[in-house]
Amino acid sequence: MITAPDIRGYVVNLPRRPDRRAWIERSLPSDLAVTVTSDWTGPFDGHTLSRAMLETAGYKLFPWQIDTDNPWWNRPLKYGEIGCTLAHLACWQHAANTGTEPFVLMLEDDAVLSPTFLDELLRGLERLTSQTRFDLLYLGRYPLEPDQSALPGFVSPGYSHCTFGYLLTRPALDILLATQLEQALVPVDEFLPALYLDHPRPDLRARFPRQLTAFAFDPPLVGQRPKDEAGSDTEDSAFIDP
């Protein structure tokens, strides 16, 4: 039986956003152990990141901007997008180095959790693990391409954006870290789909080939606060100079 101690939780939050931290902490289950990234020192804030800081820390950017009709790809990366990726990466590294729990829960500080969130998550995990194996489980997301039917209560996700709520198995951490994302930084919500499907961008598909098995709750278990209410720490940042 899967219980709360089987899950190691993380919340991505910036020190300058105590409002967001307070908001999500009101809905976090009391028996779920959670680490918040604003308690760490890291290059996570797009307002203070610079190309020099990234290079000094040994990080490298993927050649992102391409000539395409897709507005997200036909522009430079933003510092906030890279800061968000580095925060998720730091959580994966921390979990791999310090924990033994079989599951790692990732939440961003604008995730919307219901009062029954943990009970529903545990029941869903019990159903899913009794029928199949998986590496990545989306709790919420924005589908950009059609999903495929899977098990009752779950779908095999198509190409999707947003990482405000997902869960990883412990073996998946090793797979994520082995990709050396820090040497080819891309937005985390493009990175994860590349690992469970053939990414629509050939260059991303070549750099990050498919190697995860993914499912998604259907209907979603976690929502996201509207940006006009909570703002966006990724979009509210400068473009990285070419």
* Low-pLDDT runs: none
Radius of gyration: 17 Å
The helix-strand sequence is EHEHHEEHEEEEEEHHHEEH
CATH architecture: Alpha-Beta Complex
| CATH fold-level assignment | Spore Coat Polysaccharide Biosynthesis Protein SpsA, Chain A
Number of helices: 8
Distance between the termini: 51 Å
Query: How many domain modules?
Result: 1
Please give the number of β-strands: 12
Strand content: 15-25%
Q: Largest beta sheet, briefly?
A: 8 strands, mixed
- What is the CATH class name? Alpha Beta
Mean pLDDT: 96
Helix content: 25-40%
Strand order of the largest sheet: 2-1-3-10-5-11-8-7
Shape: globular
Write the layout of secondary structure elements.
Blueprint: E1 7-12, H1 18-25, E2 34-36, H2 51-56, H3 79-98, E3 103-108, E4 111-112, H4 117-131, E5 136-138, E6 142-143, E7 148-149, E8 154-156, E9 160-161, E10 165-169, H5 170-178, H6 188-196, H7 202-207, E11 214-217, E12 223-224, H8 227-230
Parallel strand pairs: 1-2, 1-3, 5-11
Antiparallel strand pairs: 3-10, 4-12, 5-10, 6-9, 7-8, 8-11
Helix pairs in contact: 3-5
Write a structural description:
With 242 residues, the chain is of the alpha/beta class. It is globular and about 50 Å long. It has an 8-stranded mixed beta sheet with strand order 2-1-3-10-5-11-8-7. A two-stranded antiparallel ribbon has the order 4-12. A two-stranded antiparallel ribbon has the order 6-9. α3 packs across α5 (170-178). It has a single domain, classed as Spore Coat Polysaccharide Biosynthesis Protein SpsA, Chain A (Alpha-Beta Complex). 32% of the residues lie in helices and 17% in strands.
